[in-house]
Amino acid sequence: MDTMGIIFSNIYDNNMGELTKERTSASIPFGSRYRQIDFILSNMANSSIRNIGIITKYNYQSLMDHLGSCEEWDLSLGDGVRFLPPYATGHTGAYRGKLEALQTALPVLQRSDADYVVLADTTVLCAIDFSLVLDEHVASGCDVTVVAKAGRADGKKKHQLALKLDDDGKVCDMAVDYIAPEDYLVGMSMFIMSRKKLIEVIREMTPHGKYHFERDFLLPQYHEGKLKVNVYSFHNVALFNESVEEYYENNMRLLSEDVRHSLFRSEVPIYTKVRDAIPTLFGQNGQAPNCLLADGSHIFGFAENSVIFREVDIDEGAEVRDSIVMQGSRIGAGAKIRYAILDKNVIIKPGTNLLGSPNHPLVISKGAVI
After folding, report:
1. At residue 124, what are phi and psi to the nearest 5 degrees?
2. Is 53 helix (H, G, I), strand (E, B) or coil?
3. pTM value?
4. Which of 23, 50, 75, 357 could lock 62 by a disulfide, CB 3.0 to 4.6 Å apart?
5. pLDDT of res. 13
6. Cα separation of 364 and 370, whole Å?
7. What is the dihedral of CA 364, 238, 190, 33, to 10 degrees?
8. CA–CA separation, 248 vs 168, rounded Å?
9. What share of the chain is helix, strand, coil (3-state, %, to 5)?
10. Spatial distance between the Cα atoms of 153 and 188, rounded to a whole number of angstroms
11. If you average pLDDT over residues 89-96, what whole number do you get?
12. How far is CA 225 from the centre of its chain?
């Protein structure tokens, strides 16, 4: 069964503040050396999905620079992987939802010979084999399969899509924008359906002002009995980066060995752009206990419980705790940083003190000098 992939690169841009000021959600750096798109693109490549469209709106130059020719994913940009910007359909402005964004992909969907389509965001990071999801989808005989995660609903946070299963594992309730109780599963923004069905949905709904995939398509058609929905329950670690606070929390979760071993597994490897660099250099007094540390950095000060990207300099006497420091940043001598997210190429002058909180990390914009 031939399958193609559609990746939404901008859906949560408005929720990510300064982190998406000059980039898409897909190209936000994560975990000391990756970008968020690396996870879903690797999952598709590992599942033998070679025909992939990446729907974009704006600020996608950084994403294009990162992906390059896509050779690190054993894919080919322009042949198998293609960017789908708004000009492809004459659409301008921000997409209000996935259905509206899918208008951009309609010509590609129509030209494809694929039987099925995997739709996915870049904000849910996991290692998943879509071939297993596809097998279950076909066996179910349903119109749509939703990949969902148990244990995330807590009766406090509103979720874009929540589903409840009966004792037989069938969907017995579905809700959108819902503060779901603990017995509900939460959608992971990953769907499988037939290409012909998806084309039919886009053609039928977008001219009638329907633009939200979950609210305008899944929910009403399910409740009207017009849509058979299957749920694929995902049991490994899934990190939802749908806000700055979640992004910070999930980077910190990588400091747990159990989380890393679930997210980075040899049978479903996560690929990224290769940047050969010398190993990180530690000075005489340099220390970095419980840190995730990339190569090419210079640690002359102290870092603890932090995620440090490539080519970061922490000068003598500087202290970095419970923070994320992205590529090319420099922490001056005697500076103290805690509960902060430093974007790329930030310079912290000597003696500067920056303090956020675990629930509200301080975000310093790309290239800032503080």
Report:
1. -105, 115
2. strand
3. 0.94
4. 23
5. 81
6. 9
7. 50
8. 37
9. 25, 30, 45
10. 12
11. 57
12. 32
